[in-house]
Amino acid sequence: MSVPYWGIIARANRWWMDPDEISRDEHVTRFEGSTVRWEPEIFSPEDVVDGVYTLRGPRQVGKTTMLKLFIRRLLASNFNPSSIVYVPCDIFKRHEQLY
User: pTM value?
Assistant: First the structure.
């Protein structure tokens, strides 16, 4: 049985239809509601060039939250929403499925 990956990816990138959706993302709202907030300055919108960026690391250290906050900054800097693609790789059981 085939998993409809495109639908899952489209739901993970709701800013394609409405850039304000990033502010309603669960990771962003949890961050905004936190009493302790630290937003790492790994990238700035000015640093972005065409390419594919990946972020790896241990579980539960804030990778997804950091990415979503960065996406919010990109959208606020007038990046084309459809040029920003977030792929939640935990939907794949095998690396071949990502291809």
Answer: 0.81
